[in-house]
Amino acid sequence: MTASPQILRTVSQVRQWRLQRLLNRETVGFVPTMGALHAGHCSLISASLAENDHTVVSIFVNPSQFAPHEDLDAYPRTLESDLDKINTNFQATSKNVSAIFVPKVSEMYPSGINLDVSKQKGAFVSVLGVSEQLEGGARPQFFRGVATVVSKLLNVVTPETVYFGQKDAQQCVVIKNLVKDMLINTNVKVLPTLREQNGLAMSSRNAYLSTEVKDKSSMIFKGLEHGESIYNKSVSEGSKEVKSSVVLSDILSFYKSDSTSNFIVEYLNASHPETLEDLETIVPGVGAIVSTAVRVPREGGGETRLIDNIILK
Q1: May I ask which residue range the UniProt record assigns to the signal sequence (predicted)?
Q2: Checking CA distances to 189, which of 157, 261, 295, 299 falls within 20 to 30 Å?
Q3: Any catalytic annotation for residue 226?
């Protein structure tokens, strides 16, 4: 049986733990999460365990990426089951998670944090050029909050490698640029999106959905796959470039043909895989990220935004 992870609550505890790993010349992988762990998180943890001497997981619902009108209080907080999931899933493996960082808000934001950006005090990080579009258009302060908390976490844990999932494609681009421009000595590794059997991307927000809506939400990825098949067909027929509008209109037509009239497509874009600029044409070899956000009914009333993407090569 592998040892249970250490629970670290403060920055100083993490730094003390990390210092010993440095002295031992041991590598550290890091999986930052907001909790409500699912199989997608576990796949990131498994990758880190396979590639590093030690793995650290953080569980922290980051307030600075929520606007005042968003669902910070409603966001699922399942610490006990998260800890149990980590212990159970990796108990039979040769290595378990070495440490779990579970800080209080006051630990991560020593100057305090107000959800209203105009009232915030202290240091914050913005990654300009890749934060304003797509998710950033719908949630203007979201990536400022993500970049800020990831900067803090990487500064505390100083891992050799940090692991993220492809589902949050824009977030991955933001973080890669953050690490590059802030000269952070960490490798960013992006792993494929883990999906439910019906194709729905695994997400903590899926907990808000009824079984019926989860089933119907499979159309999000099926539509993206439909667009991918249109693109691949054009490339196989010798096209040197494919108009984005052709791919996107086919995906939208697929969505309209589905019996989900109460689903609302908030955006559907084809973006450059590194700069996130909107693409008029997709060039094979450069490719594109085709991403979407769809608002679906939440169990008990209201809506949940589901995001997904597919990578065209």
Answers
A1: none
A2: 295
A3: no
